[in-house]
Amino acid sequence: MANPEHVEKLKQGVAVWNQWREENPDAIPDIRGENLGGAHLTYTKYWPADLPKSARKEPLFEKPILKGINLRRAKIDETYFGQADLERANFRGAEGQRADFRESKLRNVDFSHAGLIEANFYEADLQEAKFEGYANFSSSIFTCANLYKAKLKNATFGDSWLAHTDLRYADLSSS
Q: Which of 4, 24, 102, 158 is most buried (most C-beta within 10 Å)?
């Protein structure tokens, strides 16, 4: 269950969240299972980490718990989810550029109808994830990602990097 204080801070907006994170750098946000559908999370800091792009190698805290979070139709431009546990999260219809999911656990996540351009899924575990309904992941990085049994029907991956990606048993119809 999510921590009510963390959920309330996030729902108060990006400015309040960022200020709270600066004042509480050791807190590990727990918002698993929360419905943040339609949220505007663009430039949200410390989610789980906000570092200059050149330094984005490790999150500020280890493996944030965001299981089952609902980010349906959320705006997530340049939002960093690296090493997050987002299992069963809902990103259906989410939009953004350069969202970073590197090394995240994204099993059974729903990315249907999402438009995440130039997203980074390097070494992400996307087993059985859904990328259906004309989802657009153009120019994204899936290098070394695990898309075992992923549902990619009608998804767009134009100009994406798929080197060493596990696509065994993935549904690639019309992709």
A: 102
Question: Which of 27, 24, 26, 29 has the alpha carbon at shortest distance from 10?
Answer: 29
Domain extents for the chain?
A: 1-175
CA distance 5 to 89: 20
pLDDT per residue of the chain (175 residues) written in tens, 0 to 9: 678 888 888 778 778 887 887 888 777 777 766 666 656 565 555 554 332 332 233 333 345 667 788 888 888 887 878 888 889 989 999 998 999 899 999 999 999 999 999 999 999 999 999 999 999 999 999 999 999 999 999 999 999 999 999 999 999 988 7
Asked whether the beta carbons of 69 and 92 are under 8 A apart, the reply is no
The domain made up of 1-175 has a fold known as Pectate Lyase C-like (2.160.20)
User: What's the predicted TM-score (pTM) here?
Assistant: 0.72
What is the rounded distance in angstroms from the CA atom of residue 165 to the CA atom of residue 172?
Answer: 13
